Amino acid sequence: MEAVKNLDAATLENLLARASVEFSQVKLIEQIIEPLMHQIGDMWQDGSLRVADEPLASAVVRSFVGSLKSAYRVADSAPCIIFTTPAGQMHEIGALLAATTAAAAGWKVTYLGPNLPATEIAGAAQKNAARAVALSIIHPADDPHLGPELINLRRLLADGVALLAGGHAVSSYR
């Protein structure tokens, strides 16, 4: 957290790299990166972090986790899963962490980034013959447009495509 508070990207990158040597990828994600991002989010919301601290940390973590994900090579015949955040959801680290975990488990991952409308997500799923679409829903928990967007996404996806959602705010959009 000191590196984050000091806007010290290099130190944060070095700490993550060292942690990747000490921990398995699953433990690195579950015991280091996820708790770090939760703490950053909580501190940002309660005002104990500056506005600039969160984007810097997110950029460093996004780059680091992206490099972990790209290290996996999966068979062309592996099932495809799409990862993204729906329209209005800008926090993508959860989706990227889940995408990395899926790649490690042998899935062919298509990571689309954040803030996509249902039509684009469904189009990507169709184009890639995806067996599943996974969404990260973090903040806000009260977006009046997101519920209808999720319903529309389910309607647009083929019958055999699973729709998965996770994140802090997911329970607000049953």
Task: Describe the overall structure.
With 174 residues, the protein is an alpha/beta fold. The chain is built from seven helices and four strands. It has helices at 2-5, 9-22, 25-46, 53-70, 93-104, 118-127, 146-156; strands spanning 80-84, 108-111, 132-136, 162-166. Strands 2-1-3-4 form a four-stranded parallel beta sheet, sandwiched between helices. Strand 1 (80-84), helix 5 and strand 2 form a beta-alpha-beta unit. Helix 4 (53-70) runs parallel beside helix 5 (93-104) and helix 6 (118-127) packs parallel to helix 7. It is globular and about 45 Å long. The model has no long low-confidence stretch (mean pLDDT 92).
